């Protein structure tokens, strides 16, 4: 098991990628921080990072409305949760940068991005816990570890008496996370009726709001 020290406080929760999964994570984190604040507990700063703007195709499938189309996703969710819960969430509508966007220590980074370049930035952050989430048609996965130099993780990989003070970088466990998606040759599209085309889904409507299965 990993060691939990209740006296060590997370200073910042940074959620990177605010699409179907990331927006739902941001909503849950905002509710938890509100509850912590109401209980007079230590409350971390929430930071939302996504360079994308809301598109029409995001409405319904993601946590956005018609009125949000054209606006930066990070700012839409920041305003929504700040107004609803009285929080002080910070929004960054730029591509994530390990040098610019993370404090040196005390970070919990939740990655819900769809490209390897962003994951490489997350992997390089200093002294952070990195939780990376992804999904496909009707299932998902989560991997958790520390960021930084893979050599550091290897020094602690065996643990001590069943306890681990450092978890391997997600990119060390699953190198494919930091590599480009393999090129898929297009397959011939079989002819389908209009009804079949309307019913076809690239992704299940409610998968992002469902609990993900840990790896």
Write the layout of secondary structure elements.
Blueprint: E1 12-16, H1 20-38, E2 45-49, H2 73-85, E3 90-92, E4 107-111, H3 116-124, E5 128-135, E6 140-146, H4 150-155, H5 170-173, H6 194-199, E7 213-214
Parallel strand pairs: 1-2, 1-4, 2-3, 4-5, 6-7
Antiparallel strand pairs: 5-6
Could you walk me through the main structural features you see in this protein, from its secondary elements to its overall organization?
This protein is α/β, with parallel strands linked by helices. It has 6 helices and 7 strands, in the order βαβαββαββαααβ. Strand 4, helix 3 and strand 5 form a beta-alpha-beta unit. Mean pLDDT is 82; it is low at 193-198. The radius of gyration is 19 Å and the shape is globular.
Helix coverage percent: 25-40%
Order of secondary-structure elements: EHEHEEHEEHHHE
Q: Strand fraction band?
A: 15-25%
Content-based structural category = alpha/beta
How many separate structural domains? 1
- The CATH H-level superfamily is Ubiquitin-activating enzyme E1, inactive adenylation domain, subdomain 1
Count of helix runs: 6
Major beta sheet, strand line-up: 3-2-1-4-5-6-7
């Amino acid at each position: 098991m990993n060691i939990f020290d209740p006296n060590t406080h997370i200073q910042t929760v940074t959620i990177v990628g605010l699409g179907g999964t990331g927006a739902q994570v941001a909503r849950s984190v905002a509710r938890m921080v509100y509850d912590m604040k109401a209980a007079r507990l230590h409350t971390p700063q929430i930071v939302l990072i996504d360079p994308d703007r809301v598109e029409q195709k995001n409405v319904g499938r993601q946590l956005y409305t018609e009125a949000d189309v054209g606006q930066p996703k990070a700012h839409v969710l920041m305003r929504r949760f700040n107004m609803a819960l009285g929080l002080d969430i910070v929004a960054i509508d730029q591509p994530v940068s390990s040098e610019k966007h993370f404090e040196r220590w005390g970070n919990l980074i939740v990655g819900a991005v769809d490209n390897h370049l962003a994951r490489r930035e997350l992997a390089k952050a200093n002294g952070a816990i990195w939780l990376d989430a992804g999904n496909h048609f009707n299932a998902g996965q989560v991997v958790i570890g520390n960021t930084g130099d893979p050599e550091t993780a290897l020094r602690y990989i065996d643990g001590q008496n069943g306890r681990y003070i450092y978890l391997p970088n997600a990119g060390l466990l699953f190198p494919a996370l930091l590599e480009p998606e393999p090129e898929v040759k297009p397959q011939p599209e079989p002819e389908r009726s209009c009804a079949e085309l309307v019913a076809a889904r690239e992704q299940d409507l409610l998968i992002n709001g469902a609990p993900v299965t840990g790896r």
